[in-house]
Amino acid sequence: MPNFAQRSFFQRTFIHNFGLKVVSLLLAIGLWLVVARDPIAEVEMKVPIEFQNLPDNLEVDSTGSTEAQIRVRGPERLIHRLQVADVRAEIDLANVRPGERTFDLNGGQVHVPQYLEVVQIKPGQFHLSFDNRETRVVQVRPRVTGNFASGMRVAQLIADPPNITITGPRRRVDAVEAATTDPVDVSGAMTRATFVTQAYVPDPLIQVVHPTPIRVTVIMESSRDEKN
Length: 228
Fold this sequence. Notes:
RNA Polymerase Alpha Subunit, Chain A, domain 2; 2 domains
């Protein structure tokens, strides 16, 4: 005969909350029957590739596409409900170093909801470059446009603050001479005028650290002064 420990194990495993376990089993069977009877369908969607565990001192130094075209197959009912946010393509970057590297993208990196399967991934590989992160301070150069009044010209441009801090891949940050403001229209200015704008760096892989509005002061003078 079973001893007390065996009976206790049997009770904990099979008898405890027996009703809830039966209900759960019936629901699972019902869901499986509903899914199994659905016709099979496919859908293709474009999803972003998510980079996981990139080392703190590195930056991605590639401007190419980081999206994947994923074809998913499964019961028609579930396919019709599938959203882009339900499909995730993840790449682990924990062991990358500065330089170039090619990654395989396969079913192991793509996650889809239960009862669905990934049948195609394009591209199957993609190439990335990595560089050390660098942060430095660069000058802000105001940019002005507009039609000046007859006989007037810009004598001085003052940016406040005069510098901003940028960060990004080292080689790209080193190549930046200065940041530029959005164009300021000084049409009609006769003496001195101040405008509020933003500064930026054209390189999409460089970020401005703590972006702040830039006050651009334009000082005008008569172009005839040079002749006198």
